[in-house]
Amino acid sequence: NLVARVLCGFGYRVLQAENGKDALRICGEHQGEIHLLVTDMVMPGMSGRELAQEAARLRPDMKVLYMSGYADQSIGRHGVPDADFLLLQKPFTPGAVARKVREMLDSPG
After folding, report:
1. Cβ(19)–Cβ(45) under 8 Å?
2. Measured in whole angstroms, how far is the alpha carbon of residue 30 from the centre of its chain?
3. The whole model's pTM is what?
4. Could you report the per-residue pLDDT of 42-73, keeping only the tens digit for each?
5. What's the CA gap between 20 and 54, in Å, rounded?
6. Are 58 and 27 contacting, i.e. CB atoms less than 8 angstroms apart?
7. Residues 74, 41 contacting (CB under 8 angstroms)
8. Largest alpha-carbon pair distance within the chain?
9. Distant-in-sequence, close-in-space partners of 71: CB < 8 Å, separation ≥ 6
10. At what angle do helices 20-29 and 48-58 cross, to 10 degrees?
């Protein structure tokens, strides 16, 4: 909720999901583009990595930004998402979220 409010405050359009299953439903049903998935590495039901892999089947051009308060533990337990993944380490400031999202959206591929 906090990240959604921050991003809306910076002018981004946000589609918010309650969990990974809900996020996949939104990815499948939303008619417009989804440029970026912001997901926690550790979530109940499915990891952020699992969500990103499933979402990529529906939206292959969508970028992914991972968040974690337990970077070492979550990467160790869930594996490195991909070779060029970006991680936003918790705790973070609203400005840090906005900068990282902008960085992701402006990056090639």
Report:
1. yes
2. 16
3. 0.85
4. 888 898 889 999 999 999 999 999 888 765 55
5. 10
6. yes
7. yes
8. 36
9. 41, 87, 89
10. 10
